[in-house]
């Protein structure tokens, strides 16, 4: 006879919880999963009553589960939230067009308004066009930088100051391991926090599923029969299964609690990052996406092989240079004092008005490179070749008015 | 005199044929030994020159020796430093080295008692004082271990204080089921024994033989076990929560570099007990987290050695906050309502004992 549920003792257990191997029935599993997300939300005072929240929705399992759970909890516990879906259309045919259909269906199922922000309307470039120009290698950098701004702009359009994303515990654990491997202390200090505020934007991001296991998210989606899209981005086939990701999957086999243990370690280690390193982190976060491609919450490989060998070469180079180092004394310490600290000052990008530490923001820099090399003969629907630079600038100026206003 | 005609001269002295290729440099045997010695020499500066320490008498350091590669090489290198210091007429007082060996046969029944090796080591390194203790002597050195065991109730363990120390310890150790917890409990117990011994001898610190790979693996494993905060003393040089300095002088050397060094010293090499190679066929889920991480660091380190040593350097940059260090917390296992892993219990009981 099949064992009965560990909790209610009445129904038949159909699920072995990946997190602690408890045998549960369907109803208890769904209830416990929701209760745990509720616990995360209340213990961190994530939301305030009446707050308007944009759910970054890709149509994938994480964001679909996030939308479903938030809707359920909002009704059950009277959070008083006004929820809506915010999707980014990167312009990847065969991937995003299909997943957007899922999001559109979700919007109806959950009765939430949906806003879609397209790369083409914001930047004048779809990812398909970017890839045609720069090739498959390195295109994730563009996508990541663009997405960060696009989410902010989309939220600004909706007049919303809080975007929630579907990052799960596996994602966070992976980030911790990645940052240890990359020696990236600033990111180690902020990667695990549930809310990422940044000096560069007045829109806060949070990840309510940060303690939820990827496997349990899949189970939740399955048992709740959610409608989600499960194809990975077609531009990441060359990205090998990230080193950190493999490691975490192995760890999970040995001790399922490892994932949460890593999240915990990450939180503790973040506290130990020297404060002078921490300071620079807030400003930077708005501009650079994490290395390793897709900054969204799809589960494709994050680290390309190239990045690891690039870094390896740099490190060996550094070490070789160290032996050639000579100590040079400064003539007097008065000159030293003047140059001592150059702090990062946040200003506005002079082209698009997005907040940036540089004169021109990263997205505009990337766009400049793209536009310079754009073949003059390119045929586009709706925009003449000559106007295209003007039109994307115009578009961005309009965005500025909205951001500023 | 005509220049020597060498096909592949050493890049440092240019006077001998190179034999080792290390960190993008071709070196001859002598220069390689120099290279390894120098990396450890730099790390010991504080204790050799007694920086910030009373200069009147040498400081006492304890070296735990497992007869394995790393600790044996470290012993050889530090012994050489002491020899060097003593040969100079006006040298600083420097440091003295006590060596502790936890008798391997009392840790694992697969290693036979080996008196000969113990004597050979003593003969080889006459300037150090050697002590050999059985694992169960932890009950004598760390009295509160009694309470830890009585307080620990595993599913198949109840402490029986009428048993001999040896039987009691073995009953406890064999009651732990998972490879990770087993390895963890053993390491924790051995560390406590070593620390207690160092305190008894009034040592200033402990010099650990962890190589770069080992430290990188330890960093990742600590993170995976929910004890990321402990890297500030488990991986970085400095004060440990036990009030002793922990020093890792081999932090700039990879395992294979230590092996090449040992290969050049036949008198040392034949004393070393080779590490048991973890079988490649072991299922991942049966490995301990430490083994998995060591395997990961070794495999990845072949291709990306720099990245692995960067992990160690990163861990070294974390700052220990005085009040936070040494307060290892329950792992998330406990937070999930699972039985607390035994190692947490040991830590926590110890914590209560201290406060």
TrEMBL record, chain A:
User: Residues in domain Cytoplasmic tRNA 2-thiolation protein 1 C-terminal?
Assistant: 347-377
The role this protein plays is: Plays a central role in 2-thiolation of mcm(5)S(2)U at tRNA wobble positions of tRNA(Lys), tRNA(Glu) and tRNA(Gln). Directly binds tRNAs and probably acts by catalyzing adenylation of tRNAs, an intermediate required for 2-thiolation. It is unclear whether it acts as a sulfurtransferase that transfers sulfur from thiocarboxylated URM1 onto the uridine of tRNAs at wobble position. Prior mcm(5) tRNA modification by the elongator complex is required for 2-thiolation. May also be involved in protein urmylation.
- List GO BP terms, alphabetically: protein urmylation; tRNA wobble position uridine thiolation
* Subcellular compartments: Cytoplasm
Broad class of the protein's primary localization:
cytoplasm
PANTHER family of this UniProt entry? Answer: ATPASES OF THE PP SUPERFAMILY-RELATED, CYTOPLASMIC TRNA 2-THIOLATION PROTEIN 1
Its keywords, alphabetically, are:
ATP-binding, Cytoplasm, Nucleotide-binding, RNA-binding, Transferase, tRNA processing, tRNA-binding
Q: Where is this region: Disordered?
A: 275-312
Q: Which family does it belong to?
A: Belongs to the TtcA family. CTU1/NCS6/ATPBD3 subfamily.
Q: Name one GO molecular function term.
A: tRNA binding
Tell me the ranges covered by the tRNA(Ile)-lysidine/2-thiocytidine synthase N-terminal domain, including all copies.
53-232
Protein name per Swiss-Prot or TrEMBL: Cytoplasmic tRNA 2-thiolation protein 1
Q: In which pathway does it act?
A: tRNA modification; 5-methoxycarbonylmethyl-2-thiouridine-tRNA biosynthesis
Q: Does the keyword Transferase apply?
A: yes
Q: Which residues bind ATP?
A: 56-58, 62, 88, 166, 171
Q: Upper lineage ranks?
A: Eukaryota, Fungi, Dikarya, Ascomycota, Pezizomycotina
User: What EC number(s) is this enzyme filed under?
Assistant: 2.7.7.-
Q: Which Pfam families match?
A: ATP_bind_3, zn-ribbon_14
SUPFAM superfamilies, sorted: Adenine nucleotide alpha hydrolases-like
Q: GO CC: one term?
A: mitochondrion
Q: Which CDD domains match?
A: CTU1-like (cd01713)
UniProtKB/TrEMBL annotation, chain B:
Task: Tell me the function of this protein.
Answer: Plays a central role in 2-thiolation of mcm(5)S(2)U at tRNA wobble positions of tRNA(Lys), tRNA(Glu) and tRNA(Gln). May act by forming a heterodimer with NCS6 that ligates sulfur from thiocarboxylated URM1 onto the uridine of tRNAs at wobble position. Prior mcm(5) tRNA modification by the elongator complex is required for 2-thiolation. May also be involved in protein urmylation.
Q: Which UniProt keywords apply?
A: Cytoplasm, tRNA processing
Pathway this chain belongs to = tRNA modification; 5-methoxycarbonylmethyl-2-thiouridine-tRNA biosynthesis
Pfam families with a match to the protein in the record = CTU2
Has keyword Cytoplasm? yes
Which gene specifies this protein's sequence?
NCS2
**Which Gene Ontology cellular component annotation is one that this UniProt entry carries?**
cytosol
Record-given protein name: Cytoplasmic tRNA 2-thiolation protein 2
Tell me if Cytoplasm is a UniProt keyword of this record. yes
Species of the source: Aspergillus nanangensis
The Gene Ontology biological process annotation of the record reads: protein urmylation; tRNA wobble position uridine thiolation
Q: Which Gene3D superfamilies match?
A: HUPs (3.40.50.620)
Family, according to the entry, reads as follows: Belongs to the CTU2/NCS2 family.
One GO MF term on file is: sulfurtransferase activity
Report the coiled-coil segments.
Answer: none
SUPFAM superfamilies in UniProt: Adenine nucleotide alpha hydrolases-like (SSF52402)
Q: Which domain of life is it from?
A: Eukaryota
Location in the cell reads: Cytoplasm
